[in-house]
């Protein structure tokens, strides 16, 4: 029923199915099965966490790790103590039915109910397709808060059996948080390295390659749980560490098997968890107390909202991309509770916690409210607030190149600034990984393969398989790379499409495409070195030409500065042209103006700026005699330009005054300047020189 599934999340429908099945079993007179904590923690939870850890978007996770840790650690501690303290106050004021519940029991209840559940978050957030930032913040918080939940749960459970809790016990409890979280990560890293090392020697037995991934991951989880460490963090660490090395060693079929088996296994576990949650609600013993249950629900929402607002205000002081009010609302609203809280509550011992049934009833109420009410309304709210959705785009070589380029650029900027930030340590880790770790954990030549070449190899294989499956290979010429034609197939395919049988020619064409493109990736290019570059034969000529041009420009600039005379304010060039054009005879040269600079003006076109020719301009005082006062007053004298006879050159024809200084001036003014640029295809140095 598409109309129902588009409104109600799958997790809600599964809980309803569980409720119906539980009611049916109880109606028949049988006792419904209850979700036991051992079954949940040992068999149902690990596949979901391994699937999340193995396919974790590592780049977004590491870039936002600080924000995720603050939400997971500080936020969960705040929720647990705020909720536990307020519930203790409610119990003291709530009447005779609640007076016997002490502070430790309420703090334990707060630690159980405060943690965001990864199973519920995955079930709801994958359906609404929220953007990567919000998804990784809420989901990363739900994964990493497991260490806080485990520590607080075991801590308060142990304290409940003590007669007196001392300061040393509290300090040891605080230190146990680091032991549990870092110990879980260490166990996961060890098993991840062992799995990667084992996959190096499985080239002759490809069938059992996926088995090692599941086996070592499960052993990491069990080893961590054995010592009361964080099993979830061990699984995440194992999946993140082993994936790049295992995928470089195993075959493509093994990779497909791991991918689909993990997805199937996690989906089955998720389905069983929500169905068993519904069945256990019908089958379990409940003790309903209105005051306790409603207070729990109300204070859970208040604690979540306050925690997100305060922590985001602090985080935004250090983030470049700030979390907007819309983002804060989705983070606060996406704090869903699930089966982990129910199983932890089910683990409580009646001997120390006689109010276990009331705790379980309140926990189930909170789970149902968050999954049903918040899970069903978060999709309309995302659309209403116009929150950015996730864009389904295929990664390309272009994107990979630019991403690596920006990483190198930011690393260089951090080094120049002397700031050892995120990119600096990431670059150090990548260098260490390339120099030492890859050689030990990856077999053959793949250990020396650059990351970009490995990504290209992966893209080529994927594109080739997609083209063969879609039957569109015949449209492509053999010389074209399959990566550059991602949109060869139409987006809307017909409903019933029969795959055509490939002929021998098409099979040969496919092999040719794969052979020509895939073998290129194994060719090693020589590294760039400025000492081994071939010298340019025209480099010396270019340098001489540039020096010559520079000298000419400097000379022109000096001459312009030397010859420039400020114009009189009343006799601007425009007014002078207008007067000469109207009455040329009124501006005849004066008697004592033979040694003055002369500007000849062509009255034929007084409007053009090229009409002013510097025919003879001699500065005063060049002849060796001091200038007279009359000459100072007279300034520049304008003479009408005589029309030149045919065949004569305006520049090179000698005038009346052929003194050496005048000839030198004419030579400077008649310099044609640098030669024109050589056209395309012409040599830099003309032949014969």
From TrEMBL:
The keyword Coiled coil applies. It catalyses: Li(+)(in) + Na(+)(out) = Li(+)(out) + Na(+)(in); Li(+)(out) + H(+)(in) = Li(+)(in) + H(+)(out); Na(+)(in) + H(+)(out) = Na(+)(out) + H(+)(in). The chain crosses the membrane at residues 6-25, 37-56, 68-91, 103-124, 136-156, 168-198, 218-241, 262-284, 290-316, 328-347, 359-382. InterPro entries: Cation/H_exchanger_CPA1 (IPR018422), Cation/H_exchanger_TM (IPR006153), NaH_exchanger (IPR004709), NHE-1-like (IPR001970), NHE_CaM-bd (IPR032103). It is a multi-pass membrane protein. It comes from the Eukaryota. Residues 8-382 form the Cation/H+ exchanger transmembrane domain. Residues 504-531 form a coiled coil. Residues 654-664 have a biased composition (Polar residues). GO terms for biological process: regulation of intracellular pH; sodium ion import across plasma membrane. Residues 480-564 form the Sodium/hydrogen exchanger regulatory region domain. GO terms for molecular function: calmodulin binding; potassium:proton antiporter activity; sodium:proton antiporter activity. It is found in: Basolateral cell membrane. Keywords: Antiport, Calmodulin-binding, Cell membrane, Coiled coil, Glycoprotein, Ion transport, Lipoprotein, Membrane, Palmitate, Phosphoprotein, Sodium, Sodium transport, Transmembrane, Transmembrane helix, Transport, Ubl conjugation. Residues 585-689 are annotated as: Disordered. One of its GO terms (cellular component) is basolateral plasma membrane. Belongs to the monovalent cation:proton antiporter 1 (CPA1) transporter (TC 2.A.36) family. PANTHER family: SODIUM/HYDROGEN EXCHANGER, SODIUM_HYDROGEN EXCHANGER 1. This is Sodium/hydrogen exchanger. It comes from Notiomystis cincta.
């Amino acid at each position: 029923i598409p109309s129902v599934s588009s409104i109600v999340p799958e997790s809600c429908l599964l809980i309803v199915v569980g409720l119906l099945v539980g009611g049916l079993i109880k109606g028949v007179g049988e006792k419904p099965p209850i979700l036991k904590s051992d079954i949940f923690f040992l068999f149902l939870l690990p596949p979901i966490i391994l699937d999340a850890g193995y396919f974790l978007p590592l780049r977004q996770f590491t870039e936002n790790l600080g924000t995720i840790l603050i939400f997971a650690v500080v936020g969960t501690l705040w929720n647990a103590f705020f909720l536990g303290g307020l519930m203790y106050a409610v119990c003291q004021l709530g009447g005779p039915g609640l007076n016997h519940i002490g502070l430790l029991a309420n703090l334990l209840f707060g630690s159980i109910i405060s943690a965001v559940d990864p199973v519920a978050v995955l079930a709801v957030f994958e359906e609404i397709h929220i953007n990567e930032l919000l998804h990784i913040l809420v989901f990363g918080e739900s994964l990493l808060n497991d260490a806080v939940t485990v520590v607080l749960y075991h801590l308060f459970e142990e304290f409940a059996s003590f007669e007196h809790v001392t300061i040393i016990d509290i300090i040891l409890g605080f230190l146990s948080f680091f032991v549990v979280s870092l110990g879980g990560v260490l166990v996961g890293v060890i098993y991840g390295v062992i799995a990667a090392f084992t996959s190096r020697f499985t080239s002759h037995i490809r069938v059992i390659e996926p088995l090692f991934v599941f086996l070592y991951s499960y052993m990491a989880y069990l080893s961590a749980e054995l010592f009361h460490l964080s099993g979830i963090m061990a699984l995440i660490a194992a999946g993140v560490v082993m994936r790049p090395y295992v995928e470089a060693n195993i075959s493509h079929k093994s990779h497909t098997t791991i991918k689909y088996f993990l997805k199937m296994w996690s989906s089955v576990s998720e389905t069983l968890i929500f169905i068993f949650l519904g069945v256990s609600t019908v089958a379990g013993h409940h003790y309903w107390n209105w005051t306790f249950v409603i207070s729990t629900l109300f204070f859970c929402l208040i604690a979540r909202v306050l925690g997100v607002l305060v922590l985001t205000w602090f985080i935004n002081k250090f983030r470049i991309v700030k979390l907007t009010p819309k983002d804060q609302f989705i983070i606060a609203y996406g704090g869903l509770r699930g089966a982990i809280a129910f199983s932890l509550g089910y683990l409580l011992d009646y001997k120390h916690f006689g109010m276990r049934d009331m705790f379980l009833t309140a926990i189930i109420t909170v789970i149902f409210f968050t999954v049903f009410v918040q899970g069903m309304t978060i999709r309309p709210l995302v659309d209403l607030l116009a929150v950015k959705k996730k864009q389904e785009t295929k990664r390309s070589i272009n994107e990979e190149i630019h991403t690596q380029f920006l990483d190198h650029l930011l690393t260089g900027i951090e080094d120049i600034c002397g700031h050892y930030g995120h990119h600096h340590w990431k670059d150090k880790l990548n260098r260490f990984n390339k120099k030492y770790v890859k050689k030990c954990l990856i077999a053959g030549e793949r250990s020396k393969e650059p990351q970009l070449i490995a990504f290209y190899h992966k893209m080529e294989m994927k594109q080739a398989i997609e083209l063969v499956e879609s039957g569109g290979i015949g449209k492509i010429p053999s010389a074209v790379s399959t990566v550059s034609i991602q949109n060869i197939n139409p987006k809307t395919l017909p409903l019933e499409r029969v795959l055509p049988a490939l002929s021998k020619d098409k099979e040969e064409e496919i092999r040719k495409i794969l052979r020509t493109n895939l073998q290129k990736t194994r060719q090693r290019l020589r590294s760039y070195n400025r000492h081994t570059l071939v010298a340019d034969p025209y480099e010396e000529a270019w340098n001489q030409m540039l020096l010559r041009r520079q000298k000419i420009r400097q000379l022109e600039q000096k001459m312009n500065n030397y010859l420039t005379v400020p114009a009189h304010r009343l006799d601007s060039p425009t007014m002078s042209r207008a007067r000469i054009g109207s009455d040329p005879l009124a501006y005849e040269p004066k008697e004592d103006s033979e040694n003055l600079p002369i500007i000849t003006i062509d009255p034929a076109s007084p409007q053009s700026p090229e009409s002013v020719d510097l025919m003879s301009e001699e500065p005063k005082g060049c002849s060796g005699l001091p200038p007279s006062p009359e000459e100072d007053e007279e300034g520049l004298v304008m003479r009408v330009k005589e029309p030149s006879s045919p065949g004569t050159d305006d520049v090179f024809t000698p005038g009346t005054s052929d003194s050496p200084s005048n000839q030198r001036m004419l030579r400077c003014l008649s310099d044609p300047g640098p030669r024109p640029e050589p056209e395309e295809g012409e040599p830099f140095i003309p032949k014969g020189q």
